[in-house]
Amino acid sequence: MTDSTVAAAIGEHIRAFNHRDLAALMDGFTEDAVWITGTTVVRGRTALTELFADAMAGLLPRLTVQNLLADADRAACQLVETMTVAGEERTCSVAGFYRLRDGRITAAKIYREGSADVV
């Protein structure tokens, strides 16, 4: 994969996430994808669909890319996330590290400033 292909795949992931387009978001993952946020580990597209559907419905999150570095089959992003928690809007910094295969995300590790838990 080229750096621009990786960057485009991550860009589409962010676009689908922000538009709450669950079908397009899931199309961007491999069947065996692994998503790690804090102590939460989610494996496979079925479990990822549930994770993202719940987040999109409950938190109304939105991501803004600050920086994106892509190299071969990997990407690192610095993001700002805005979400609603208990009726209150919150903004935090996020770092995301992605591994891709054939243009799809196969693994991601997400670090949220402060705590990864949204409670």
Label this structure with key terms:
about 120 residues, alpha+beta, Nuclear Transport Factor 2, Chain: A, six-stranded mixed beta sheet, 3 helices, globular
Task: Walk me through what this model shows.
The protein has 119 residues and is of the alpha+beta class. It has one domain: Nuclear Transport Factor 2, Chain: A. The chain has helices spanning 3-18, 22-27, 45-58, and strands at residues 29-37, 40-43, 62-71, 74-85, 88-101, 104-112. The protein has a six-stranded mixed beta sheet with strand order 2-1-6-5-4-3. A hairpin with a 2-residue loop joins strand 4 and strand 5.
Share in β-strands: over 45%
Residues in helices, as a percent range: 25-40%
Order of helices and strands: HHEEHEEEE
Structural domains: how many: 1
Using the coordinates shown, work out and report the CATH topology: Nuclear Transport Factor 2, Chain: A
The largest β sheet comes out as: 6 strands, mixed
CATH domain class: Alpha Beta
Low-confidence stretches: none
- The CATH level-2 architecture is identified as Roll
